[in-house]
Specification:
single chain, alpha/beta, Rossmann fold, 2 domains, seven-stranded parallel β-sheet, 19 helices, globular
Length: 485
């Protein structure tokens, strides 16, 4: 088990005194240190980045910082599906007024805390409301990592708010330069230029790719980011307002996790469909008659077929889902509950339908599920002993939810980004979990799923220790795709 870094040990010794804030919770020592360190950082620098591992209570620490600053009005910006989680935290741990915004009209309410989702930033930034807040908490700030997005631009417009705090368990999902937006808001003088930041701290290669326009071919150079450099220098710059602790550093009593891979052979109907798509794709790549965009679409199609044939036809044939049924039958009895996820809606939906036919109590949440229904599903899974399974898509359920009632996670396919897969696991393995968490990946033998696990996810995880747990980026080219399928 890893020990605390020297820096974190020093911070914990110096700042783990009682923060003297009106929070109705027994805080861990590391949470007290987070509140006190964050308060000092914000008072001196105006901003604070809290990048604790997922499940270590970043939200309660953010509320503690807000109280310690004696902030009059606090704006909390979070993903849409996290608003319900913030409501529960504010209800349970504070006795102050708050406002959860679901429509524009609710923005006018004068309360201590106002919670909005990132897509409501425009209403705050362009109106006269931004001057009404003295503290902004940007929760899961990696949602605004791309400097070209509307979210990032409106978040930057709120940089004039007196105090700012940014929280995320995965501050960098793919590339080091994703951190620039937040650093530019915090310290626009040091991090004024994106190009200078990338040039100084990112490893870049210029890759020549062949493009097709009609019957003509031409070559184009693109930049490929593949890691970071001068990492120690960047750490030294941001350390005064940056704090990250890992689970195995501060929660020695947290139950362990057991990882297992189950390999299955595609159903004959799947195999026929899969081989047909792969054969055509390889032929087009070999003859250089396909663009990278089209190849990626077909690559994704092969992954979808591994989930279920329902992606391309009405009938659901799936070796993965057959194996899932057996797993659930074997472990259903007793106190076990399951969190089942897939990158693809069709696979997740078919899993849900199969479980319903088995008369198993379950809930389902994907990108089409609104925030209210999502919160109801979470509550039912957490509180109702008859609800045994929570099924959903990875993108919808990767952050800002707590599913500690479950102790089994079953992946029906994974994200190509290891940090996102870790986020899924941490929906269960977080504060409040009492059981060992079992992580099961069902993989189809001799398919793209098996090769992704071997050639993308495992090597990329080894690159994830350079800075904030991950700077490697997956940038597939035609040759890569051909080898994977």
């Amino acid at each position: 088990m890893a020990e605390l870094s020297k820096r974190n040990k020093k911070i914990h010794r110096k700042y783990s005194y009682e923060p003297d804030v009106p929070i109705k919770a027994d805080l861990y020592k590391f949470q007290k240190a987070g509140i006190n360190f964050g308060y000092r950082a914000i008072k001196k620098y105006g901003s604070f980045i809290l990048a604790d591992d997922m499940g270590l209570g970043k939200s309660i620490q953010a509320i503690g910082v807000a109280f310690k600053l004696n902030s009059k009005r606090v704006l909390i910006v979070c993903p849409a599906n996290a608003r319900g989680a913030w409501k529960k935290i504010l209800d349970k741990h504070t006795g102050v007024s708050y406002n959860i915004v679901y429509n524009k009209d609710c923005l006018e309410a004068r309360t201590k805390f106002t919670v909005i989702n990132y897509d409501r930033l425009k209403n705050i930034a362009e109106g006269n409301l931004r001057n009404k807040f003295d503290f902004i908490i940007s929760d899961e700030f990696h949602n605004a990592k791309n400097k070209e997005t509307i979210r990032a631009k409106y978040l930057k417009k709120l940089s004039g708010i007196q105090y700012k705090m940014f929280t995320s368990g995965t501050p960098i999902l793919n590339r080091l330069e994703e951190l620039w937006v937040v650093l530019n808001i915090i310290d626009p003088h040091t991090f004024s230029s994106y190009q200078e930041f990338v040039s100084k701290f990112s490893k870049i290669k210029n890759i020549r790719i062949r493009m097709r326009f009609g019957k003509r071919f031409y070559y184009k150079f693109i930049k490929k980011f593949y890691g970071g450099k001068n990492i120690d220098e960047l750490r030294d710059i941001i350390n005064p307002y940056f704090l990250r602790r890992k689970k195995n550093e501060v929660l020695h009593s947290l139950p362990d996790k057991i990882e297992q891979e189950i390999y299955v052979d595609l159903h004959p109907k799947q195999r026929k469909m899969y081989d047909s798509v792969v054969k055509k794709l390889k032929l087009k790549i070999d003859n250089k008659k396909i663009t990278i965009k089209s190849a990626m679409a077909q690559f994704t199609r092969t992954r979808q077929i591994c989930g279920t044939t329902a992606t391309l036809m009405d009938k659901d044939y799936s070796a993965s889902l057959d194996a899932l049924e057996d797993l659930v039958k074997n472990y259903l009895y007793g106190e076990h509950k399951f969190f089942i996820v897939s990158p693809f809606k069709a696979t997740a939906k078919c899993a849900y339908e199969r479980l319903k036919k088995m008369k198993i109590g379950c809930v389902y949440v994907d990108g089409d599920t609104n925030a209210v229904e999502s919160n109801k599903a979470i509550d039912r899974f957490q509180e109702n002993s008859k609800c045994k399974v929570y099924v959903g898509t990875i993108d919808k359920n990767k952050e800002a939810i707590t599913l500690t009632a479950g102790d089994y996670i079953i992946f029906l396919g994974k994200s190509l980004v290891p940090a996102i897969n870790d986020q899924i696991v941490d929906r269960l393995r977080r504060i409040g979990q009492k059981k060992v968490v079992n992580v099961i990946s069902i993989l189809n033998r001799d398919t793209v799923e098996e090769r992704i696990e071997e050639n993308i996810l495992a090597p990329k995880e080894r690159l994830c220790d350079d800075f904030f747990d991950g700077t490697g980026r997956i940038a597939l080219r035609l040759g890569h795709i051909r080898n994977l399928v």
